[in-house]
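Continuing the series of single-chain predictions for the mutant panel. This is the parent chain; the variants come on the following pages.
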Amino acid sequence: MSLPRLYLDHAATMPLLPSAKAAMIEAMERWANPSSPHAEGRAARAAIEDARARIARMLGHDGALIFTSGASEAIEIALRRGKAGARLVSAVEHDAVRRAARDAGTLPVDQLGRVDAGSIGAEDTLHAIQLVNNETGVVQPIEELRARIADEGGLLLMDAAQAAGKMPLPAADFISLSAHKLGGPPGIGALLVRDLALLEPSGGQEQGYRGGTENVPAIMAFAAALEQGAGWMEEASRLRDRLDAAIRAEGGIVVADQAIRSPAIASYRMPGVAATAQLIRFDMAGISVSAGSACSSGSLKPSHVLAAMGWGEQEARETVRVSFGPDTGEADIDRFLSEWRRIAASAQNRAA
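Parent structure:
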């Protein structure tokens, strides 16, 4: 009997949590437009505002919360309408940031993928810096960076798509979130704003900062997913450490090994074996992993994140990402390692 598929690509999207699915189904009964003044509309509006308050409370946020279609839209709103004259983005940002700020300057990173506080820009500059990198799991020294940005009179946009619901969020002027990265549904996210005076309004819904009728079922599911908590991260940390050690013992390379990293994401290089070949072998064995960001993994270009960290093109092309979720267990690590060893041994035999 074949084994069930093993999903180790939670950084791309996390399966919908049962609590989120239940909340979404229940909310589908609230079919009215939340902007309508009648009783049905008011009931839908009340549900949205309740979810908004619950999400803010879970994230420790006391500013404004604007619902969006996801982190990409939240990022675009902040970068295009944030009240600052210049834009700087870190060299390891998600492609959504790079697309929304094509003419922005670049904040360089060190070999571990961390932004140097000395590269912070001048007054009236909006800085886009991820909290957790989506390819390597590296956690930025965001408190130090935020303090430096504030001292210089700038603003901070923190992409927290890979951190929200998994670790406490530091303060920032703008914070982007995506529900499907934490067990909620796709198509819903949020922009947390410290002070709405920092953002140009656009009219429409969401206090005049984002047009479009709110997606009540997705919003309710977003809140339910966040309330599930991050208790599983302690076990993920143990499993990730075990996998790191085993990969090293097998001659593999742990990306950003010496950096502080999220327990939920790890990238590994298998020297001499292209990531595309690895992905095919893992997939044939029923194991789902990826080669970097899901938004760019179909591209033939090597990772811009690894390039910014000083990796060569061939090294970058030999790297895959493994990401954990609430249901990842010991047996899953064993199964992944068993296939890793088979792929590596097969490559060594061909080379011999």
